[in-house]
Amino acid sequence: MIMSTQHFKEFYTDWRSLAERTFSTEVENPRGREKYGGIALTGMGGSGIIGDVIHVLAFDSSDIPTVVVKDFSLPKFVKDDWLVLAISYSGNTKETLSTVYEALSRGCDVAGVSSGGKLAEIAREKGLTYLQVESGRVPRASMPALLIGALKVLRAKGMNFPLPSSEGLTKLGEIGEAEALAEDITERLAGRVPVFLSDVRHYPLAVRAKNEFNENAKIPAKVEVLPEWGHNDIVGWEKWLGPFTAIVLELGEGDKLMKFAAAYLRDVGVPVKELVMSDSMTYVDRVLWYSLVLGLASLKLAEIRGVDPGVTESISRYKAFLKSWSPSIES
Ligand code: F6R
Fold first, then answer.
1. pLDDT per residue over 86-115, tens digit each?
2. Residue 23 needs a FRET pair 20 to 30 A away by CA distance; which of 50, 108, 195, 270 works?
3. Model-level pTM?
4. Which residue numbers are catalytic?
5. Pocket test residue of 49, 89, 135, 294 for ligand 1, highest count of atoms within 8 A of CB
């Protein structure tokens, strides 16, 4: 999909209306079982990140375990009493489809979210619970639709996961504020490799940010997560090399853990940007809003670097390779 950065940016600046349209999209076959042993969330890349967000939401919203699967096969403990929710924007991603076939053969309850593709075909043929999101975008620019779609499917299964609030949706329309925050991040990143630091709860946001800089700005990026960071990554900074800039994701002004990381990195001479996130937003609202901000920052960097954010040739190359290769799954 070749288009100007300006045109591509519209796939981000319309998130509020995209979210609202997904709210009014119906879940097909909205039925669930009385009891589940757990939930497996399968998907890759821009679709897979939704599984990470739901996995964190489950810390407070779910009585049953969740597992995120970004692979060709499901763990052994995913039995016939599990729900397997497959998320794939294209509906054609080999890893994700392979978990769907495996889940069906194990007798799991299988559900899906996609914009069409093979996943839509399977869902309709088998009468699975399914939500179709709008097509014509790239997966990463469809984040609100994929997230709301997945949450609606889970709710249709009787699981009480929170949806974005109306304040959260309004916030997604505040593009001027998002652009200003984005600008402040981008101006520290020209010619540098971003390292996103977060706590465990904001890990999905840090990964999302990394992926955005990879895919839109075509640069490597890194994620480091606390508290594990304090047991290994921290040492790597003692004699660090390379043009890194640390972006530290902090929750409110009083985030002592993340502030420790920011202060330590400054002490050893690493350029640091502290992104102080609002602690008065709900978790889902915050993840969406800062995904928008960090996404816009990656688009600004793409523009500075003169690269097309909409084209990801190497992902297509990997997917072409997968057409002629299947993993041999060892039992
Ligand atoms: C993000 C992106 C990739 C895809 C991934 C999986 O914009 O293009 O990370 O999300 O290759 O593809 P889908 O999402 O179609 O299952």
1. 999 999 999 999 999 999 999 999 999 999
2. 108
3. 0.97
4. 215, 231, 319
5. 89
